[in-house]
Amino acid sequence: MLLLVACGDTLQPTPAPTPDIETTVEARLQEKQAEDAALEAKVRTLAKAMIEATAQAAPTATPLPPTPTPTHTPTPTATPVPPTPTPTHTPTPTPVLLTETYGNEMYGFSLDYPSNWIVREWMEESTAHIEIEHPFGSHVIILIKYTLGVTLEEFAAVRIASDDNFREDGRVKVESLPGYLSEGIGLDGGNQVDILMVVNDPWAISAGFVTNPGLEELHQPIFQAMIESFRIFPVTITSPPPMPSSCPEPSLVAGVEEPGTSVENALMLAAGDTVTAGLSAGPCRHFFSFQAEADQTYVITTQLLSMEDSELWLFYTDATTELAYNDDDPARNLESRIVWVAPADGTYYVAVAELGGQGGTYEISMRIGRIGEGLTSHYPDWSPDGDRIVFFGGLSDRQDVYVINADGTGLTNLTNNDAGDVLPSWSPDGSKIAFTSERDGNTEIYVMNADGSDQIRLTGNPASDFWPDWSPDGAKIAFASDRDGTLEIYVMNVDGTGLTNLTNNPDLDWQPDWSPDGSKIAFTSDRDGNLEIYVMNVDGTGQTNLTSNADDDEEPAWSPDGTQIAFSLLRDGDWEISVMNADGTNQTNLTNTPTMEGKPTWSHDASQIAFFTDRDGPDQIYVMNVDGSGQVPLINP
User: Fold this and answer.
1) Any idea of the CA torsion for 20, 24, 26, 30, to the nearest 10 degrees?
2) Gyration radius of the chain's alpha carbons
3) For residue 318, which of 387, 263, 369 has the smallest C-alpha distance?
4) How far is CA 302 from CA 268, 369, 390, in A?
5) pLDDT confidence of 76, banded at 50, 70, 90?
C-alpha cells in the first residue's frame, strides 16, 4: 500500500504499490546513474557549442544608462596591505554571448548575462538580493547593503575580517570600477567562486560568481565576461525610504479592512479565516483578535507574499501578556507559525510586524484555525500505557509528529519543524519517541522525549534510514535502510551504535515490528513476487513467510500478548485491516470498506485497534474494537 523510502516534502501516504514495487533499489540506482551520465554528456556538448560560438561573437548588450562611463572615481587611499602594489585585474580577451542586461537604477549598476539565465530579486534582513542562475546550477548572487560614506578599502576590510570568502592575498584591483576581485575561492564542496566587491556610495555591492563542479569550461568564460561588463552609474535614491513616524489607522485594502495597529482596533478573525491585507513596514504592530475555546489547539500561520521579514506574537486576553513568539525568517514565501493550546475561553490577540526593513507597503496572508480541522493524520502508534496515540500529520504540505489523548483531546505538535517529521514509534516505557526526519538534508532516524524535547539524530548515512521500532527491553531499535543498495532490516543500539543487517536479501525488506517477548521481528518483503508478511528471529535467522497471498500484505503489528498480528491487506482493489494468528493462520478482515485503511496499532489491553483511513476524504485516524465493530474517528468525531 505505501512505500516510504524518503520523507521529503512529498511524503504523503500514497495508494497501493504498482508493479514498479518489484523494481529493486539497485535497478533504480542504475537508472539514476544513466540519467546522470546523459546529463553530463549534455553539459559537455553545450559547453563545447558555447565556447565555439563565443569565439565568433562579441557582446551586444549596452549598460544602463546609455553612457557607460563611470561617474564615481575612487578616492585615493593609502597603499594597500600587503605594502607591495595591489595586482590589477586584466580583462579577458575572449568574447562571449551576453545578450541581456540587468540594470538597477536604485542601486546604480548594471551587468550583462546570457539570455537563458534566470533573474530573481528579493529583500532579506535589510539586504537586497539579486540572483542570476543558469539551469544547471551555476549562478551569480549579488548582495547590496546601505552603507553611506563607506570606502572600498573599508568595505574590503570588513569582508576580510568576517572571513566571508574574500581573501586579502587573492584580491586584485578592477581598473574600470571602484572594486576588488578575489578569484578561485573554494566554497560549498568544491564549487569555484569569484567575489567582486564594488562601492557605489551609498551602496556596498558584493557579487559572488559560483561555478558548479564540472561546468568550469562552460561557465568560467561567461563569468569573466560578466565581471568585465559590470558598470556603475549615479544612483537615483541616495538613502533608504524613511520609516513611518507613527502607525496608520485601519483602512480598507481591496475591500478588506486592514488589521488595526492597536488592540482597540484589532481586526477580528474567525477560526479558519484567511485575510490578505497591505501592511506598513517599520515600528508598527498590526493586530488581529480571535475567540478561542479552552483546551482546543490552534495554529496561527503567517504566509508572507512580498515581505522581507516579520515577527509574530500571541498575547493573552489582557493583550499584554505574551504567550508565544516566532521570529523565523519567512522571506521568499516561507511560513511562520505558532501552535498553541488555549488555556481558557476568551478573546486572544495576534500581532504581526516588520521591524527591520526599509519601509514600504507589504502584503500578508494570515490564517488562524483549529488544528484538528483540515489536519491529516497517518501512521498511529499507541502508547504502552494506552493513554496516548502518536502519529504524523500536517496542514498543507508540512508533516509533523503529533500526540493526542486516546479520547481525542489534547492534540499537541511535538516536532514543529519545517522539514518532514514522520513515522513515530513509542519506546516500551513511554518516555521517548523515535521518528524519521529529513531536517538535516537526508532521511534519518531521530529520538526525542515524549514531550518533544531533546530531539537527537541517531543515524548519519547518505542512504535513507526510516521506520524505527523499539525492542521490548528498550535497548535496541530496528529500522529499514537502503544503505547497502537495497532495502534491508537493520538493528542498532538506542544510541545509534552496534549496527547490524538482519535480512541480507536482494529484495525489499522493511516495516519491522518487534514481538512483545523480544524473540522475533515481523516485517514486510517482496522477495516472493509481491508484498508479504514475514517473521524472523532477532538475529535474522528463520525468515518465514506468514501470509502467502496472491495480493499484497504489509505493515505487521504484534498484539500485546504476542498471539496475533494485525496487518494491512489488499483485497479486491481495497486496502483493509486484517488480523491473524502469530503463525499466519485464521486471517480475518476487520474493516471491509471500499476505501483505504492502513497501519494498525493495538491498545495496551488488546481491546482496540487504531488505524488511518481516507473514508472521509483526507487521511484520518480511526479507532475500532478488536472484532472490527465501533469504528469511529479519533480527532473531531
Assistant:
1) -20
2) 30
3) 263
4) 16, 12, 26
5) very low
| C-alpha grid cell, residue 305 | 507574499
Which burial class, exposed, middle or buried, applies to 319 when counting CB atoms under 10 A from its CB (0-12, 13-18, 19+)?
A: middle
For the chain, the first-to-last Cα distance in angstroms comes to 26
Give the H or E element holding residue 628: none
| The 3-state secondary structure of 356-377, one letter per residue | CCCCCEEEEEEEEEECCCCCEE
Read off the C-alpha cell for 385: 500505557
- Report the distance separating Cα 306 and Cα 242, nearest Å: 19
Q: What pLDDT digit, counting tens, does each position of 542-586 carry?
A: 999 999 888 899 999 999 999 999 999 998 788 999 999 999 999
CA atoms within 13 A on the CB side of 414: 30
pTM of the model as a whole: 0.54
Angle in degrees, CA 166, 168, 173, rounded to 5: 90
Please say whether the dihedral angle defined by the alpha carbons of residues 625, 628, 633 and 634, taken in this order, is positive or negative: positive
Cell (9 digits) for 369 = 484555525
CA-to-CA distance for 446 and 433, rounded, in angstroms? 8
Whole-Å CA distances, 133 to 63, 210, 334: 20, 9, 21
Show the CA angle centred on residue 11, arms to residues 6 and 14, nearest 5°. 110
Bond from prior residue into 468 cis (ω within 30 degrees of 0)? no
Distance CA 575, CA 595 (A): 7
Instruction: Determine how many CB atoms are found less than 10 A away from the CB of residue 315.
Output: 19
Mean pLDDT computed over 470-475: 96
Which one-letter DSSP state was computed for residue 260? B
Residues 208, 197: Cα–Cα separation, whole Å: 9
- Report the alpha-carbon distance of residue 92 to residue 227 in Å, rounded: 10
Which helix or strand (DSSP H or E) is residue 593 part of? none
Q: Which three cell numbers stand for residue 608?
A: 482496540
Q: Could you give the 3-state DSSP secondary structure of residue 168?
A: helix
The x, y and z cell numbers of residue 1, run together, are 500500500
Cβ atoms of 611 and 380 within 8 Å: the answer is yes
Contacts by 516-525, CB closer than 8 A, 24 or more apart: 516/472, 516/558, 516/559, 516/560, 516/561, 516/562, 517/472, 517/562, 518/471, 518/472, 518/473, 521/478, 521/489, 522/546, 522/556, 522/558, 522/565, 523/489, 523/556, 524/553, 524/554, 524/555, 524/556
Secondary structure class of 573 (helix, strand, coil): coil
What proportion of the chain, given as a percentage, has pLDDT over 70? 67
Q: Which DSSP category does 545 fall into?
A: E
The continuous run of DSSP H or E covering 273 comes out as: strand 273-280
Place of cell 513467510: 545
Side chain identity at 301, as an amino acid letter? T
Identify the bridge partners of residue 437 per DSSP, sorted by sequence position.
421, 444
124, 269, 301, 340, 623 from 370: Cα distances, Å: 31, 12, 11, 10, 22
Phi-psi category of residue 266: left, alpha or beta, with phi > 0 → left and psi -120 to 50 → alpha: beta
Which cell numbers hold the place of 351? 500581532
| Sheet containing 488-493, strands listed edge to edge, beginning at the edge strand earlier in sequence | 465-470, 476-481, 488-493, 500-501
Which residue(s) pair with 267 in the sheet? 288
